Structures are given as structure tokens and as C-alpha cells.
Amino acid sequence: MEEPPLREEEEGEEEEEEDAERDEAGPEGALGKSPFRLTAEDVYDISYVMGRELMALGSDPRVTQLQFKIVRVLEMLEALVSEGNLAVEELRMERDSLRKEVEGLRRVGPPDSAGGEVNLGPDKVVVDLTDPNRPRFTLQELRDVLQERNRLKSQLLVAQEELQCYKSGLFPLPREGPRGRREKDALLARASNASSSKEEKTIIKKLYNYSNKKHT
Amino acid sequence: MRSSLTPLGPPVSRDRVIASFPKWYTPEACLQLKEHFHGHVSAACQRRNTGTVGLRLSKVVVVGDLYVGKTSLIYRFCKNVFDRDYKATIGVDFEIERFEIAGIPYSLQIWDTAGQEKFKCIASAYYRGAQGPVIITAFDLTDVQTLEHTRQWLQDALRENEANSCFIFLVGTKKDLLSGAACEQAEAEAVHMANQMQAEYWSVSAKTGENVKAFFSRVAALAFEQSVLQDLERRNSAQLQVGDGDLIRMEGSPPKSQDSKQPSSLGCC
């Protein structure tokens, strides 16, 4: 994509040179030009030169016939040249505006850091990597976490129930000695009349002592 | 005596003991009108002949739009609290509530699903129940749109289950926000919807606690009764296969013929 503009610039220079050439060479110079660089004015110059030469040939009716055809051909050439030049001008303007746009985009920076409007197509989302609350985890990960949570919750419920059973004396405390007996009575008493926090403390303390003694 | 009945758990709290069959909320939309346990069920409970029912969990799935108060309803019942702040449920949550029904221990596992659309694909995986869950479709009594959406919620829940095996409840929440004519109007529309979905209708308020305990007791009793009946039926048919002397007596009084005489089973169960 870098090449065409360069060539254009060269061409521009050539054009300028030839304009100067033509000015020097006069109307005849137009016939020596490259056909791709002809302008409407060149065509007029050519028709002036040819008209003059035809006149010099005199009033032979064959010359008059040929003159009509030559005029027609020159008209066609004029149309082609002006149409072509117009198209070239349009393309040149379009090229310039596109060039400006590219330069503008290059100045802003690469598109992924720009955060500008990027058309990703349907069903796509742009994620801002600097947003601490950006979506990060997959659906499967959430599913797994929920399953784990549910599993732990049911285990907790079972453990709580079991604890409740021990507290209410439904399950006997392991290895009851005379001391254990007393412990259980205290627990039962507590379960029957949701008692004061003071008593609760002592029971927990007793339980703690009990289990400590067992382990040592 | 109780300890011999409940070898796997502490005694249930007094307000979870259901001795007589809990009543419906409105006779215009209820699953059954009778006021006592099914004869076979009472008899089985008295003889302590309820098989493994007492060890079983019945699954309850609560569905409905976001912010209608599914979590609040469950929290009011299970923990007796009401939190004014809204916190969206992520995916699913559950609570287990233990009852003693007609002397038999019985538990409900209540699944609280997220109402937000984005969690639907996760929550819907929990809709399925082994023997037909209880489906509670909740809506906000003050928002008629949420009532309209219950139809879709029910459809989604039923897709995962055999329609005839499920008990369906339609529950209008936030009853405390309505009164008088507005409340009557909302309830009339809800009853209409409930009849279309063959559901039992209840109006509740998690904030005041109105009807919350009565509603869940009703759910538990209906689920329990169905479990016992299914259990009896299964054991009877097992005995039939063995082909012992009980064969003739079984033919005389199959539990199914009793079922069909019930006034309003509404094609459910």
C-alpha cells in the first residue's frame, strides 16, 4: 500500500514537467504526449493543428468527407479524456481522505488499547481489563463452587443435628464414667429449659475439660 | 418414646409438629379439600408402619421472577427473620426443615432458585426431583407482570419432571403491601391463574410472617401423605408379586380406588 502514493508523486512531477514542455512546444506538442496524460485542452490543440492542415489540402470533396469523420473522432477523444480526468480526480480525492483517516487512526493508537468503537459482530462483548468487576469466571466454575457450597452446607446441617443430639442427650456421650453421667444430666437439664448463658458457659467448659482429660 | 422413633435426629421444635391435616388457604384453588389424613396414611402412622418415609427428604423447588421474595419467604419460615435489604440469590441455595407429621419424622429440602435470567441455566439443573418435587411458583402480589411470568416458570420446572407427579403451589408474596379491594383483585387474578395451572393458591407475607408457617405446613403434609401412599403402594405391589395369603385382601382395598374418590385431586398425584 506504500507504493502507489510514491508513484503518484512521481507522476505529478512528470506532469508539471510536461506542462512546461507543452507551453514551450505550442499546439503541436500535444501530439507528442502520452495518451494517458492528454487533457481536453490538448485535444483542442490537436484539432487546431489538424484543422489547419486539412484547410491546406484545399476544397476537394473527399477532404470534406474526411473532415467530418475527423471531427467526430476528435469529439470522441475529447469525451474520453474529460471523463477519464474526472474519474482520476475523484479517485485522488478519495485517496486523500482515506490517507487522512489512516493517519488519524494511527495517531490514536492500536485499536485494542483505544477502547473505541470496534465492531465485533453479534453476540460478542468487549471486556475492560482494568475493571476490577469484569467477568472472569466461567459458568462451569460457578456451578462447581455452588455444588461444593451445597455439599458443605448439608454436611454442616448434619453436624449441627448431631451436635443437637449430643446436647439433648439423645446420643450418649462416649465412655460414661460417673463423671460423664453428671455431664449428661447437666446437658439434659439444659435442653429441657433453654437455660441461661451462664449455665451454657459452664457446660461448654465442662465438656472442654472432659475431652481434654480423655485425650491426656 | 420419641427417641425410638427418631433415631437419626434431635426432636423437632414444637411448631414443626403437625398432628392434624393443615387446611387450604382458599377452597377456590386448592389441591384437596379434605381435612384429615388419608385413612391408609393415618392407619400406617398409628401402626408406625411407614417404611422408610421418615428417613426421606421431599424436594421443594421455589421458582419465580427476581425480587418477588422467594428467599425472604424461605428465610421467614426456616429462620424466622426478615431482611429488608435485597440480595440476589446466586444460582441456588437450599434449606432443610424437619417436621414431625402424624408422629412420623419428615423433612423438606427447600431449594431456593435465582430469579435472574442469567442464572436460569444453573438453577434449572436443580428442578428435577426423584419422585416429583413440590413446585412453588412465587409472584409479587403488587406486580401483575410477575404473575403472568409464573406460567413460564412452571413450564420450565415441569419440563424437568413428570407433570402428574408434582404438587404445584402458586404463592402471592408481599401481602402486607396490599389491602382491601386491591388485595381482593390481585387474589382473584391469582386464583384464576392457579386453576389454570392446577395449583393451590396462597397469599403470604414474609415481612409480617402472615400465612408463612401455615403454607409450609400444608406443603409438608401434602408431600408427606403422598410419600406414605406411594410407599404403601410399592410395598403392596411387592407383596403381590410374592403372592402370599394377603393377595385377596389387597385386591379388596387397593389404595388407588380410594384415591380416585377424593374430591379435588385435580389430576395431580
Polypeptide structure, described:
Chain B: It holds the Pfam family Ras. Chain B: It is found in: Golgi apparatus membrane. Chain B: Residues 253-269 have a biased composition (Low complexity). The complex is a heterodimer of chains A (216) and B (269). Chain A has 216 residues and is mainly α. Helices cover 72% and strands 0% of the residues of chain A. Chain A has a domain at 29-108: Methane Monooxygenase Hydroxylase, Chain G, domain 1, CATH 1.20.58.1770. Chain A has helices at residues 3-25, 40-56, 61-108, 111-114, 139-167, 178-192, 197-215. Chain A contains seven helices and no strands. Chain B has a domain at 54-235: Rossmann fold (3-Layer(aba) Sandwich), CATH 3.40.50.300. Chain B has nine helices and seven strands. Chain B has helices spanning 2-5, 39-46, 70-79, 120-123, 144-159, 180-196, 212-242, 247-252, 255-261, and strands at 17-18, 57-64, 92-101, 104-113, 134-140, 167-173, 200-203. Chain B has a seven-stranded mixed beta sheet, sandwiched between helices. Residues 1-7 and 243-269 of chain B have low confidence and may be disordered. Chains A and B meet through α5 of A and β3 of B.
